[in-house]
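Pilot study result, target chain (268 residues):
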Amino acid sequence: MTRTPTDDSTLFTDPYRGLRVVVTGGGSGISRAAAARFLELGAQVAVIDLDPSGAPEGSVRVRADIADRAQVGQAVAECAQQLGGIDVVVNNAGISAVGDVTANDDEEWARALSINVTANARASAAALPHLRASEHAAIVNMSSIAATAGLQERALYSATKGAVQAMTTDHLADGIRVNCVNPGTVATEFVDRMLQNFPDPVAERKALDARQPTGRMVTPQEVAGTVVFLASPLNTSTTGTSLAVDGGMHGLRARPRPASTSNQESRT
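Predicted structure:
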């Protein structure tokens, strides 16, 4: 079972030192930023990716297709062997999908659900024996603002991320905390690829910036900070929750900013 912070005073001074972390999709974007932040804090990190070459220096790089259960099982076993066990699993690998309910056929629905949802279960299930043996076991799943905001032209993607949020509930009896992060639109290669499906990618990128109350997309490092926070051995009572990192999208209704006036001018 998970230790409480009072059981070991060193948790307060160096909580991530030696923590064994597996990150799926860690070759790029949010996952790479999360893997890098864990490494900076002294954790041991293994990355599972279809192309792990972009994973941060110092991480264990394992190649696997997360849509294939056998490959995921083998990859997680290799991560556990290299790290000497597993304390944290960060499920972040995923793909985009654009359009309303008419835009994607059954094959694409099955593919997106397999990679964005079922892959979380594959990785978590493969890691479960190691997590049960850990004193600081945690799973962090990556959902999205799309799970709750009802974004236009994101029917399939929203469905997958809603499922991720809904499945962030189990294994407390095993001493394993499970939480998820709900980012807004994040400025990553993932978004760059998605934008190419639009007639005017430049205009769509500006719209993505503008729809967040902060006036800009979220950075991968901001999301990574939240992932690391939820995985901390100090957060023994944080479980079964979804934490938004979305520039206020889920709760704020900001007034449009004047196009040509500065903040100082707007106050005078």
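One observation from the pilot: The chain has nine helices and seven strands. A full batch analysis is planned for the follow-on phase.
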